Known about the structure:
By secondary structure, the protein is of the alpha+beta class.
Amino acid sequence: MIEVARLYRIENDSSVKAFVDVIIGQILVKGIRVIKSKDGLFAGMPKSQGKDGKWYDTMRILDDELKQELQDRVLEAYNV
């Protein structure tokens, strides 16, 4: 089960609309982003910048069902 622990909205013209922290079981995941794209809103995983200047996911959900649940919970909380 996924629970949204915190949602911080960003009110500007950026494509990033919010930062969200979620709890998955006993794990707190910080820094999930709600991003607006040409196809609509989606939840982007936390990233960190490597020494090469590129951005890399710091967390990846391998299970498609759990990934979809995360998308649903984050966007549901954002749209409230």
